[in-house]
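Incident log, support desk, overnight shift.

02:14 A customer reports that sequence design results differ from what the structure should imply. Their input is reproduced verbatim below. On-call engineer (initials T.W.) acknowledged and began investigating.
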């Protein structure tokens, strides 16, 4: 991604506290929330890409995030992962009272928020196993020599990830030889190697075959419970197949939230988004 990082040099932003309001922190923690996004706004040259957006994600839930093009789905992920600094608002993880909007992308990743962009970015010439080894080593190391350096439990984690993503039999193949769907699973596996608390996954099934989509639905379904998973997707058949709780974004705010049935019946959602895809 080449989008320049949006920096905040204004004095107002510098006054944001480095730790979140203790009352708010205790409140969301007592409700089983893991990730809290409170009243976040982002503008680009006066255009509000996010407009007082709030979102609460519970520990272990699978949340689908939908909405028309330009609704702010990617910008929201950019804020959560520290790629974009909001003009106002707060983001934090229960378990750590630090304000995430003041941390670097690297620090946020280390806290356990992993992100998968739409396009797979695996190392094509290296094997599936080597890709996972490198991910587990946090990108530090040299291909081919990592396996020996890994501790027993790290090797077990890689074996487990290979099983989860269904690529055990492909471990020694170059990643470049995998199908598009398999590459997407490998990249999800590379995030899993770090055992993240939150996984943000952008349009995982674009370009997949029907069979690959079904397999991806099973994979994401199986990750919920162990991880908090946010899936951004335009393919409504796929969303329907995995949806538990769905959040609909529109013009930078939450338009509706609920089960797939509930949001599908909401006339505002039908008008701005689902009308054409149902
Ligand atoms: N770096 C930027 N500079 C200027 N405008 C931006 C920037 N990033 C996003 N925007 C604008 O902010 C709005 C929200 O964009 P965003 O990419 O978050 O939407 P989205 O919901 O992810 O859409 P899509 O479904 O097409 O991926 C859009 O109008 C977009 O043009
Ligand atoms: Mg987007």
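02:41 Re-run completed on a clean worker. Output:
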């Amino acid at each position: 991604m080449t989008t320049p990082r949006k920096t905040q040099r204004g004095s107002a932003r510098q006054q944001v506290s480095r730790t979140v309001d203790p009352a708010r922190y205790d409140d969301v923690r007592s409700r089983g929330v893991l990730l809290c996004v409170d009243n976040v706004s982002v503008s680009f040259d006066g255009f509000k890409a996010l407009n007082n957006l709030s979102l609460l994600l519970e520990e272990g839930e699978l949340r689908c995030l939908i909405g028309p093009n330009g609704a702010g789905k990617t910008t929201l992920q950019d804020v959560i992962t520290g790629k974009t600094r909001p003009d106002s608002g707060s983001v934090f993880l229960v378990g750590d009272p630090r304000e995430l909007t003041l941390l670097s992308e690297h620090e946020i990743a280390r806290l356990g928020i992993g992100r998968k962009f739409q396009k797979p970015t695996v190392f094509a010439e290296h094997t599936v196993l080597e890709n996972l080894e490198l991910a587990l080593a946090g990108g530090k190391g040299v291909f081919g020599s990592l396996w020996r350096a890994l501790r027993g439990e790290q090797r077990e984690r890689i074996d487990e990830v290979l099983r989860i993503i269904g690529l055990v039999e492909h471990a020694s193949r170059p990643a470049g030889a995998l199908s598009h769907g398999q590459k997407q699973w490998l990249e999800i596996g590379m995030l899993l190697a770090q055992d993240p608390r939150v996984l943000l996954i952008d349009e995982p099934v674009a370009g997949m075959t029907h069979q690959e989509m079904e397999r991806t639905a099973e994979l994401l379904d199986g990750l919920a419970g162990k991880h908090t998973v946010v899936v951004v997707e335009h393919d409504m058949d796929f969303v329907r197949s995995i949806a538990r709780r769905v959040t609909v974004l529109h013009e930078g705010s939450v338009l509706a939230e609920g089960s797939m049935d509930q949001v599908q019946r909401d006339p505002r959602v039908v008008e701005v988004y689902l009308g054409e895809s149902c």
